């Protein structure tokens, strides 16, 4: 102890910067570590975390969940009517939505608008007023897409007559689903429900669905991970930017589409729609990500995050080890770029199942692949690269199937470990579109947001109760 | 002078590193500048350069040439038979080739093989032996593509029955031409001339040409710079990597192709060919670059480089101020990656008109946009970025139409100033494919090479003789 007072000290300061400043001012030598208490200083979070770190059962469970995620081989195999793919939709007047469960009265404007539109589309009512009355009479029930292994962007509405992409993991034969991307402009996923929107959905549910199904019958199953991997080398992060992936998909499928026996006018209309929609691949990227993460679900003790999703009010997550339970918190605000004439006061809260892409290691986690996306979500290419780097701090490992040229082909950070989120106080980053809070106005911007810390604290608390030390 | 011996010196050393090392060893303080004598130490080059630096006529001429290059708006307007677009090809048995002029006996294997194939394709002879005899009798003449405002990759063969893309600069109505890309495998541009190659050329010259012409009649003119600009944000450098640009072109043109009155089988075959050929856009990128540079030709006194091209033996350049005169030197070796089983001893010398892309500020100059290309040409993404940065040292300015995400959307270096090449001793960088030196083996690798210094010295010497100081 005496030595402390007789020799020159070099101080490593973990905590407030001002402690280090004082030492430096007094002529001492101090290095201030960039350190924060776990879980952003949350006491319960810190306690739970301490009980779960270096835990043999959890390490083994995460290794298993991660291996199952990495081994997944999602293939696009078919197109089915939603009621056929998910029989519960044919049994009841039931509509699926994005994010964790939420009651009608609590839903945000775009989700309510989209549900009313889906009721018109299903011809359960002739007017918006009748549709609203039907809901108020309790005739229509609502449930998250994720409850049926489905994912859908923004409002995330799936009703029985809509066509779904069917994606099968050939490793375990599990099937997952996503709806078709409607394109931009007035669309149901942003809460629009006018005549044009419903007519467009009708065309998608009949002619387009028929063309896509016939095309896949001709082509056979399509591997989705190689398309995503190649798109990551072409400036996409396959969440908010899908222009390259859409092109690669169509390059692969066009010969099959042209080989179907369908009338050439029907093929023309399908191709016109797809070539005009740079987000066409998004829903397939989401389904592929859901497929990879479904493979990792239900491993007892695993702290790996298998779902992140938003319903326009709350952000919800699920862990592999806690199964179907949702852990929710109010969604964080979105830091983004707004289209001219709009601002943060116009924005709905963070919305959609599309954060499944970040959960699977792409999207915001792979922003280094997509420097051009900063023109859309804000920031600089250096920020994008830094985001990809920092996500390595919260993941179990990385995914060698998805590499980032700007990081010298390093694999993307993947397999979010809820413990590491608490330990580092680094929140998972999500690239997201921003919807107007009123139904039907549509997209008003895009930006970057984060998953709220308390979801992860609550999820780990629940897991800790299941686990023995 | 006495002060030199009485005070502490800090030495700035321009020249040999060992001078600085000696000072440092003696306890002095020396910074070694990374400096080289102009023109790599060439005495004649240094003398010529001194006479041309800060020369009012040259500065004004370069400003004009650069402005004309920047203002060019190349549009894809039509497809024509080569003999129709370039009447000299119908008048004589004349075949165009890549690079500067060269006599039959001096040509490399792939160019000779490709010329023999073109003679079979034109049915001027029935066998390779007859074709060879025809050439030895002096019945066939050869000329560079550039002499007719045309460009073509590798061997660069254009004969009268081949289809050409017609690209028009809407700023000045000048037209330039390029041939169609044949795809990979056994192809004429690498010197292959077997039956399959000739049959494929026949299909391209009839059915494919008809489909492309009908498609353009339906679509109207297509702006090429926006496609190139977008592809630069999608991992292409539009020389050795054209996968994104090919997709963007087809996305734009597919609806028109499907709207033609052509039989669906013909459309199917065209689409199958194009979707299987990631280099399909290369020839259009080259034509667009030729169009931009043709706009800059013939400005008296301008030291701007308007052509860089290789014939498999020599590298040739042209300056705006020296018009049609070629300045040639033996091509530099290519530093690259070889396909398995091949090495540098198998390689033909640097070949093709495709260095027109670097001359226009893309290709090797835009490598920062294409980190994934290092998997093809060698090096690391950091090298690719550094190459784009270093090209700023040899150009008059940059092209705001073409921006590089990895350099925070900086515009590409463009408008090579031959004086700056001498002054900096930095040679223009070229991404290039490597052909086997024997006709018909095909591509055996890809890599990076540079333009030889003596071309630039000779071109400036010629310009100096025209100019008064």
Automatic annotation (TrEMBL), chains A, B:
Record Gene3D superfamilies: conserved protein of unknown function from Enterococcus faecalis V583 (1.10.10.660), Enterococcus faecalis V583 domain (3.90.1710.10), NAD(P)-binding Rossmann-like Domain (3.40.50.720), v583 domain like (3.90.1700.10)
Q: Which Pfam families match?
A: AllG
Question: Entry's InterPro entries?
Answer: AllG-like, OXTCase_su_AllG_h-dom
Signal peptide positions (record): none
Record-given protein name: DUF1116 domain-containing protein
């Amino acid at each position: 102890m005496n030595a402390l007072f007789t020799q020159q000290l070099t101080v490593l300061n973990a905590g407030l910067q001002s402690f280090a400043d004082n030492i430096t001012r007094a002529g001492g030598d101090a290095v201030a570590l960039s350190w924060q208490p776990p879980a952003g200083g949350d006491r319960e979070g810190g306690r739970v975390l301490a009980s779960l770190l270096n835990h043999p059962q959890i390490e083994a469970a995460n290794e298993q969940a991660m291996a199952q995620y990495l081994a997944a081989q999602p293939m696009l195999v078919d197109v089915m009517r939603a009621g056929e793919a998910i029989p519960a939709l044919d049994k009841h007047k039931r509509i699926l939505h994005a994010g964790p469960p939420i009651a009608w009265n609590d839903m945000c404007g775009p989700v309510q608008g989209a549900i009313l539109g889906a009721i018109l589309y299903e011809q359960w009512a002739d007017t918006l007023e009748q549709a609203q009355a039907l809901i108020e009479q309790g005739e229509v029930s609502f449930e998250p897409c994720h409850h049926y292994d489905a994912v859908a962007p923004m409002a995330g509405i799936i009703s029985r007559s809509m066509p779904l992409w069917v994606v099968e993991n050939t490793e375990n034969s599990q099937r997952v689903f996503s709806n078709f991307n409607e394109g931009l402009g007035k669309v149901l996923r942003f809460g629009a429900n006018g005549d044009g929107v419903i007519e467009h959905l009708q065309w998608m549910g009949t002619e387009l669905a028929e063309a896509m199904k016939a095309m896949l019958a001709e082509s056979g199953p399509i591997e989705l991970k190689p398309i995503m991997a190649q798109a990551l080398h072409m400036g996409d992060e396959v969440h908010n930017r899908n222009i390259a992936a859409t092109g690669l998909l169509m390059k692969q499928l066009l010969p099959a589409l042209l080989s179907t026996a369908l009338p050439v006018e029907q093929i023309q209309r399908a191709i016109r729609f797809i070539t005009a929609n740079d987000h066409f691949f998004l829903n397939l990227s989401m389904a592929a990500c859901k497929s990879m993460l479904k493979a990792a679900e239900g491993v007892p003790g695993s702290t790996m995050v298998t779902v992140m999703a938003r319903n326009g009010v709350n952000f919800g997550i699920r862990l592999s080890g806690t199964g179907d339970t949702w852990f929710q918190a109010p969604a964080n605000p979105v830091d983004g770029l707004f289209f001219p004439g709009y601002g943060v006061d116009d924005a709905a809260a963070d919305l959609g199942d599309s954060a499944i892409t970040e959960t699977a290691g792409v999207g915001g986690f792979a922003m280094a692949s997509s420097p051009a996306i900063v023109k859309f979500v804000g920031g600089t290419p250096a920020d994008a690269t830094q985001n990809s780097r920092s996500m390595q701090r919260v993941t179990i490992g990385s995914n060698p199937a998805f590499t980032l040229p700007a990081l010298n082909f390093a694999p993307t950070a993947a397999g979010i470990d809820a413990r590491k989120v608490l330990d580092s106080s680094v929140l998972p980053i999500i690239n997201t579109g921003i919807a107007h809070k009123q139904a039907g106005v549509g997209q008003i911007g895009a930006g970057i947001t984060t998953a709220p810390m308390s979801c992860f604290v609550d999820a780990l608390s629940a897991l800790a109760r299941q686990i023995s030390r």
